[in-house]
Fold this protein.
Amino acid sequence: MTIAARLQELGIELPKAAAPVASYVPVVVHGGMAYISGQLPFVGGQLVTGRLGEDVSLEQGTEAARACGLMILAQLEHAGIELDRVERIVKLGAFVSSTGDFADQPKIANGASELMFEVFGEIGKHARSAVGVPVLPLNAAVEVDAIIAIAPA
């Protein structure tokens, strides 16, 4: 089954790839690896903002991380990389805007991690970090970056 067919089966439509908000490129491919810059969460076309443990619920945070994962896939496609060329999701880095006493960053990061497994199966399992931070760009609730192994075209 192609990844496009799998996305359709799951009822997933990828968002439009977001333009960079500063001086960087969204995707760099080098040596068979795609390095995807941190992606912010857009749900229903709106940026999910706020902090976990303050004004963003666990469920909203998990949905935001999933939205970041969808944006990662959208950025790959926008860079001309067919999703069927993904050999392995190597690593995700999740940054969670949270209060000092919020300790469920791994639960939030699961939104992106579980998406990768749903879409890619076993090759979607990856190494990961989940880090709490006091603030993210544009007051985003979550940001996720990725390293993905890509097969030659």
About this structure: The chain has a mean pLDDT of 97.
